[in-house]
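job 3f2a | input accepted
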Amino acid sequence: MSPEPLDEREFELINIVGAEIANNQRDLSLRMDLSLGTINMLLRRLITKGYIRTKQLNQKKVKYILTSKGFSEKTRKSIKYTLKTLNSIGLIKARLQGIMLELYKNGARDFFVVGKSDLGLLIEMAAKEVPLKDCSFHLLDEVPSTVIQGTLLICKENIPPERLAIHNHVDLIEELAKGNGYAAGASDEALLQNEG
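job 3f2a | predicted structure (196 res):
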């Protein structure tokens, strides 16, 4: 019989106990932003399940220790989470490739990636795997104040609309949040915004 699955709070608590970054229930309560009563209930549940044990340090102090079963479950869930994250990254990369291919088909050749971030790195990876000939990619920290010849690929939030008004641009965060929109063949007008 497989072990009873951990909920998110139990998993977070196991991670904190395993990393030894909280000394008592009050520290755990503050770190997890939960009441002392909730922390106490979660600890008791994890002790009952065999994921955590206690060690009496003195009459008033108890140390919470991850058991081998707790360590095993922490590792199992971490691997599962990592695989799920990698799958999500693969889906995002495929979406980015679809967007870039669509832009390429419509004549875009010079791309300016605005916002040095993990998303920017993912665009770079996606671009290397897509057969785009005669294209250039440039990384920018900020939106240029003068008109550029090319398409801005926006990878950061909270850019004032007036900064984008003079540029051809695609807000990749917004496009990725939409679902299948662009990659499924949305119109250029819906994706490529040029209000200048």
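job 3f2a | The first strand starts at residue 52 and ends at 56.
job 3f2a | closed
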